[in-house]
Design goal:
The structure is a single chain. This protein has ten helices and eight strands. It has one domain: Rossmann fold (3-Layer(aba) Sandwich), CATH 3.40.50.300. A hairpin with a 4-residue loop joins β3 and β4. α1 crosses α10. It is of the alpha/beta class. The chain has an eight-stranded mixed beta sheet, with helices on both faces. The structure holds adenosine-5'-diphosphate and magnesium ion (MG). The site of adenosine-5'-diphosphate has 15 residues, from α1 and α9. Magnesium ion binds next to α1.
Length: about 270
């Protein structure tokens, strides 16, 4: 299973949603920072035993290695241990450093063929973003948004432009799940409203349901500290992410713990 998490402009929550999806399942998962504008995972995550992850490898190392070798263990082997079942491969710190990746397709292929489940945080995306091939390689694309009409209408426009570009690359329509970051107490109503706003979209055919993730400052702190087991797994953030994981499994049809398939060429 390969989940790409992205967002439209001004829709914070992409990195946090990606990490929450990564840690809220017992399935071995690698969370990878693939935001071309820079990534905060290395700064925010507290490594087991305290402190930060080593400065390398980062996604730049993976992008470089993926040009030479491609195998199912590459992504997990480069990532740093975070929790019992989650490894993290941070992205590069600032946008300027991404200039080193001229071609994002080998990275996309490495993520797709990973034997471990992958959640990649692509950050902001539009139809000319360098990360479009990475989104196209994913089983399912999560588009994070906020529960404001303006944000959802921007997302509608974004999906209408992005979906055909992604479909052309993967030679099949993408499967996209918009996910609202919302207070838990209003989540049900918000999901309904977002569904209504997106229903008349030209991209409605690729929208496979609406999900939600809880705004939960306490759960946020615990999660980045690597405290995700026992009662710490019952924060609103991680509970909502666990429900979303089940929803994404259902949408993609990719079973948990499935053997990786022969993925073929990614155009
Ligand atoms: N689910 C959440 N619960 C609480 N705060 C959140 C949540 N998601 C995002 N935030 C807040 O928004 C900020 C930006 O979120 P982040 O995940 O880094 O967004 P992005 O990667 O899209 O820039 C975080 O530093 C945090 O303060
Ligand atoms: Mg981010």
């Amino acid at each position: 299973m390969f989940i790409a998490v992205c967002c439209d402009r001004g829709a914070p929550g992409s990195t946090t949603t990606a990490l929450a999806l990564g840690v809220s399942t017992p399935e071995p998962t690698v969370v990878v920072g693939v935001d071309p504008y820079g990534d905060d995972l290395a700064q925010r995550c507290i490594a087991p035993g305290g402190g930060s992850f080593p400065p390398t490898p980062t996604v730049l190392t993976l992008a470089s290695e993926a040009r030479k070798i491609l195998d199912a263990s590459l992504v997990a082997s480069m990532a740093h241990e975070f929790t019992a079942s989650t490894r993290v491969l941070p992205g590069h710190y600032s946008a300027e450093l991404a200039g080193g990746i001229n071609d994002w397709k080998p990275l996309a292929a490495a993520l797709r063929m990973s034997g471990s489940r992958v959640v990649a945080d692509l950050g902001r995306i539009h139809s000319s973003s360098p990360t479009v091939p990475v989104a196209a390689a994913a089983d399912v694309i999560v588009m994070v948004t906020r529960p404001e009409v303006g944000a959802v209408l921007h997302l509608k426009d974004r999906l209408e432009r992005l979906a055909p570009v992604v479909a052309k690359i993967r030679n099949a329509p993408p499967m996209i799940v918009p996910v609202v970051v919302t207070p838990k107490r209003i989540a049900g109503g918000v999901v309904d409203q977002v569904g209504q706003l997106l229903a008349p979209s030209n991209a409605a055919g690729v929208i496979k349901g609406i999900g939600w993730v809880a705004i939960d400052p306490d759960g946020y702190e615990l999660m980045y500290a690597g405290k995700v087991g026992g009662k710490d797994a019952r924060t609103p953030l991680l509970r909502s992410a666990a429900v979303l994981n089940d929803q994404l499994d259902g949408v993609s049809g990719v079973r948990s713990y499935a053997e990786p398939e022969d993925e073929g060429e990614i155009a």
